[in-house]
Amino acid sequence: MQDPHTQSPDYWLANSDVVFTEAEVTQALDRMAHALHERLAGQSILLLCVMRGGLYLAGQLMQRLQLPARLDYLQANRYHGTSGSDIVWAKAPEFDLAGQTVVVLDDILDEGITLAEVVRHCQQAGAKQVLTAVLTDKDNGLTKPLKADVVGLTVPNRYVFGCGMDVYGWWRNLPEIRALRVA
Ligand SMILES: O=P(O)(O)OC[C@H]1O[C@H](OP(=O)(O)OP(=O)(O)O)[C@H](O)[C@@H]1O
Ligand code: HPA
Q1: Structural domain of residue 106, as residue ranges?
Q2: CATH code of the domain covering residue 37
Q3: What are the Phosphoribosyltransferase domain coordinates in residue numbering (predicted)?
């Protein structure tokens, strides 16, 4: 089989199925904004985008949130080493999180390792409240270290991409969510 890193972007479209259309994603984003308004009415918030996958959700949600918000970002990547999975911090938030209401935004809760580590970081930095919002939660049957406070869509236990999520670096910009076909 060809090295997946060298496949053309079109290969991934041809070998995947739409699991949520653009219209369904739009509805999910509206529901997420509504849920955040209910939880955060009257508060000022710090949106914390988990790069790079959280960028799409952050951009979409920012347009929908009528709350005094500031924006920061971090990059904490999964590293699958020989002795299990770990997180490598490439970029910590710049804002002082002490006393802040932080809303962490990410594209997917898969095993939950990344989000659990980001929440731990925010709490350790003294955040007053930490809420998590993910566009997708993977239905993989695992006992995850945390549940997200706000979830847009539940995706099947397949590799998904689009709306911030990549497949070998491609298609984070797709306005729909697709799942790779299992060979
Ligand atoms: O729930 P988990 O099993 O921890 O996986 C979810 C994380 O994995 C992806 O990030 P990745 O490290 O691939 O970086 P990316 O955001 O640049 O795609 C995704 O954006 C989530 O942050
Ligand atoms: O299914 C996925 N798709 C994209 N990125 C991911 N990061 C963890 N799981 C996934």
Answers
A1: 22-155
A2: 3.40.50.2020
A3: 25-166
- Number of domains making up the chain: 1
| Predicted TM-score (pTM) of this structure | 0.96
Q: Is residue 121 part of a domain?
A: yes
Q: Peptide bond before 70: cis, by omega within 30 degrees of 0?
A: no
Identify the nearest ligand to the CA of 160 by its number. 2
pLDDT in tens, 118-151: 999 999 999 999 999 999 999 999 999 999 999 9
- CB neighbours (10 Å) of residue 94? 9
Q: Does any ligand 2 atom lie closer than 6 A to the CB of residue 134?
A: no
Measured distance CA(114)–CA(123) in Å, rounded: 14
Condensed to tens digits (0 to 9), the pLDDT of residues 45-57 reads 999 999 999 999 9
149 falls within a domain: yes
Is 6 within the bounds of a domain? no
